[in-house]
């Protein structure tokens, strides 16, 4: 199985990479590599993890200008695609129309022997893709459901296609699993078992998302959706900040009403419910994996009073921090 990347119109060969066929891995075997990217083709990294039936890849790339590459591949693969940030296009005779992704979108793609042009537009590209062997993927498809049966038939006839013509927004549950996969520190067989479970969980969420027809409509304009994600990113990067709804709304150029309504619509929870869940998850991780005392952890996630932190932690996990650490 080979992928080749070229510059203009299949001119100079930039990269040729061979991958093991999906069924050739031994039980428990896992391969991993990180490729550093340098100008003029971007500045960043691309991380790949492979084991039986699964190839995971993700990367962060800074692009000074639009990047155009030409792709040639003999892969037969189902791709769980997540564009975390940036824009991309695939122009290929394999598909009836251009496949274009924007920030915060996901879909499932079947690609058979791809050949065509790829375009990437930044200034930042954050991508996450999981490629599955088609026969392995089909085991997860629900039976006797219209949209899934059409996709199954496309795979069996080797017709490249999207599971749904319209992409869906990445949910907060999906973001959490993507983050777990990217930051997994386990090794060997334990890493493979962990990643297999996370891939299955992520695929479940994707299939449910496309099965639920109510997940498509949105009352928000695209610019407002982007502002909700900007608030989300600010919260993730500033867990210990002390900001009001009004502060957050002004930070991204909207108002409190739009922020409250839009954030709940996209992420299924309130702004401060989301913030608190992240704080508690971080506190739990620090309790189990660090030597910080409870006062230091309380301060780390923005609680001025350790007793208030302990009370909030108990409400979330039904156990006080000191007892969790003693366990």
TrEMBL record:
User: Does this UniProt record's set of keywords contain DNA-binding?
Assistant: yes
Which species does this protein come from? Answer: Chryseobacterium culicis
Give the matching PANTHER family. REGULATORY PROTEIN PCHR
In terms of InterPro entries, this protein maps to: Homeodomain-like_sf, HTH_AraC, PchR_regulatory_protein, Tscrpt_reg_AraC-type_HTH
Any Pfam family hit? HTH_18
Name it: AraC family transcriptional regulator
The protein's UniProt keywords, in alphabetical order, are: DNA-binding, Transcription, Transcription regulation
| Keyword match DNA-binding | yes
The UniProt entry, under SUPFAM superfamilies, shows:
Homeodomain-like
- Domain of life assignment: Bacteria
Residues forming the HTH araC/xylS-type domain are 229-327
A single GO molecular function, which one? sequence-specific DNA binding
Q: Where are the transmembrane segments?
A: none
